[in-house]
Amino acid sequence: MVASAQESLAPTGEAGDLQLLKRLVPYARPHVWLFVAALVTMPLAALASLVQPLMIKGAIEATLVSQSMDALMAVVFSFAAAITVEFLTKFAQTYVMQLAGQRTTADLRRAVFEHVQRLRVSYFDREPVGRVVTRMTNDIDAITELFASGAVTAISDLLMLFGIVGFMLYLDVELTLIALLALPPLALSVNLFRRWAREAFRSIRVHVAQLNAYLNEQVQGIAIVQAYGREAECGAEYREINEDYRAANYRNIKADALLYSVVESVATACLAMVLYYAATQAGLLEGSAAMAAYVGTVVAFYDYIQRFFVPIRDLATKYTVIQSALASAERIFSLLGHHEPDAPAIAVDSAREETGSAIEFRGVTFAYKPGQPVIHDLHLRIAQGEQVGIVGATGSGKTTLMALLLRLYEVQEGSVRVNGQDVRALSREQHRARFATVPQDVFLFTGTVLENIALEVGEPDRERVRAVLERVGAWDWIEARGGLDARVEERGGNWSAGERQLLAFARALYRDAPILVLDEATANVDSETEARLQHAVSEVITGRTALVIAHRLSTIRALDRILVFHHGRLAEQGTHDELVDAGGIYARLHALQLASEGAAAE
Question: CATH class for domain 357-601?
């Protein structure tokens, strides 16, 4: 895990900040009018804010120079109007910008989810689930914060800065030049911070992915952890990962605190220099009127300087958010840029051969890792409507055969054909619509029994669902537990293994596909449940081409043909009686199982 994390610390791409922001544009484009509305309000809000120090100057002059109550009241009403305009425009700007941001990140989140759904299964064999989930949640949340914190409106802060400089030049050029001496140290500090912050946020994103991956593993394996008393060891491992995550956050906090301190120090020094220079200039003035006018100028200028460093401080804070978002954007677009599509249609011989075969493997060789084939040069033909059992020791290639048939993985050599057509010539939707599967480890979704059985697109047919439950012999206890609307908790944890298997059989029957694949669907259940499952098996395979991977040979002895796999090769095939009489691998498996059942009975 540590080695993988260190590899992920490197930048996921050489694209600069602008390039990363440009890649967000397609997701923001549908909401462009909201962004335009927010941008239109920015100059109005800035102008309403920037005229206020001038009004303060006017109020001082009206009081000390002209001593006119009418002039003073005019300034007061103008000041109230400016505050009102500023409030309304800033409210509109913040609301519209966040609305646009939420819609943009919702579109991005949807795009990432759909992209992950289209990735090949082999991608998830290599990538920890926690890392994928982190990119779909924490990393997108970091981009959402870009809008929620107002970081996108940094352009408004820049507009304020330029406006303040313009008004300061209008008031006093010399004071403005002194104030601008603060810019070089600030620019240097921001440049150093930019480098530190990006590296810190990359490290944070990596370590939060580690935390999520570890937590996902521990939660799923909590029963084993408790059974073997590994709580202390797992706690120590978690503390180590958590320490790394905390250290990464410390680095970011130090950089952030340093930048904020520099901004505050430079602002204080700038104010001191401006006030000192103003005091020396005021001593050279003669006459109370000139002095009063200069007091108004200095007060307004002091207000502008205070306002000048507000957007700088805001930019420093927002820069932290922007760096976090860009670090997350690197990882998100790295995921979106990973092109490993699940079963795309490929330009191969798409001609359909009328061979009478439902399934055919022609010289298929497959390996999960290069140089370690799991299936070796397999030639196999299964006729339409034929019901075939598949047996073999663990690791002999049985489940891999099913994965290749469903095109969850691509063959390295040879071809797989269904109904005389190469499976690579069809889209995954067209190809997989011909299959219904019942795996050994049944996956149930959180919801209801109805929703878990009727997985097809469209409104579930309640009557049809009830009919398939009756056919597999499950309706009596489903009805006792609440009927079709009975609750299914996460992964079906509130149902027994046998009950989950019966629901999977009902799901396959509801789909009514021409080819059925059962992957050790009656394993790991007691004898009473097995009898009920045997009835369900006979119901779902009737009238269909069926491939039944079996651990218990009693499940397949009545099928048309039995295939025996050994070390990735088709070693034997025939009926149950033929294989027993042959005295080969199947006969030994049969004898061992009979002996095991006899010992259990005794």
Answer: alpha beta
Contact residues for 419 (Cβ-Cβ < 8 A; gap 6+): 352, 357, 358, 434
> What was the pLDDT predicted at 65?
66
Q: What is the DSSP letter of 341?
A: B
CA distance 398 to 391: 7
Residues 475-519 pLDDT 10s:
888 888 888 988 988 778 888 888 888 888 888 888 888 999 988
Give me the chain's average pLDDT, please: 81
Cα 18 to chain centroid, rounded: 23
Domain layout of the chain by residue ranges: 16-336, 357-601
Q: State the average pLDDT over residues 63-82.
A: 80
231: CB partners within 8 A, 6+ apart? 225
Q: Which residues contact 273 (CB under 8 A, 6 or more apart)?
A: 178, 179, 181
What is the C-alpha separation between 602 and 593, in angstroms, rounded? 14
Torsion sign over Cα 171, 172, 176, 179? negative
Which of the 8 DSSP states describes residue 148? H
Q: Could you tell me the CA-to-CA distances from 340 to 13, 135, 371, 466 in Å, in that order? A: 18, 17, 21, 39
Q: How far is CA 545 from the centre of its chain?
A: 38
pTM for the full model?
0.72
In the chain, what percentage of residues exceed pLDDT 70? 89
Architecture (CATH level 2) of domain 16-336 = Up-down Bundle (1.20)
* pLDDT surpasses 50 at 15: no
Q: Please give the full DSSP string across 166-207, using - where no structure is assigned.
A: HHHHHH-HHHHHHHGGGHHHHHHHHHHHHHHHHHHHHHHHHH
Tokens of 482: 């609440």
**Residues linked to residue 381 through DSSP beta bridges, in sequence order:** 360
